[in-house]
Amino acid sequence: MSDQIKCRKAKFWLEDGVLFCEFILKECKNEFSEDFIEDYLNVIATLSDGRYFPLLIDLRQLNNNYAFSVVKILAKNPELKLAILSKSFVVNSFLIQFVFNVLKMVQDPIIPNKIFRSYKSAVKYSLETNYIFNASY
Fold first, then answer.
1. Which residues lie below 8 Å from residue 115, measured CB to CB, with a gap of 6+?
2. Sheet strands side by side (includes 18-23)
3. Model confidence over 59-116: pLDDT tens digits?
4. Fewer CB within a 10 Å sphere, N or C end of the chain?
5. Would you give the DSSP letter of residue 59?
6. Strand 10-15 versus strand 5-7 pairing type
7. Helices (H), the chain
């Protein structure tokens, strides 16, 4: 695992070709904001060093409302689409997974977005995405 970088309510690291983002529960008291995106993009650029990796965002420790706001903002962000291969969100609630899948809020024709309840499945999907992308190089 590479060094972790803490940034605006989350910590990021690169491991085995996957960018990980985990939100820090004690810092997630106020509403999540789009204002954080630029800082997150800078961290992703630093960790990825000009290469493309899948991003796995772990939201399991957050309450449903906070997790919902994070997914809603990050799933459709156009700048984030240019920096990564795919986005995987790990949630702890069938409700959030169901709502996003039914409303198609995480679908994106350019960058695949997936919602998982299993962290292991999200990691597997991210590793496969990275392997497929990098197999052609």
1. 71, 88, 89, 91, 96, 97, 100, 101, 106
2. 5-7, 10-15, 18-23, 55-58, 87-90, 113-116
3. 888 877 777 777 777 777 777 777 888 888 898 878 877 777 776 555 555 677 788 8
4. C
5. -
6. antiparallel
7. 37-48, 64-75, 78-81, 94-103, 119-135
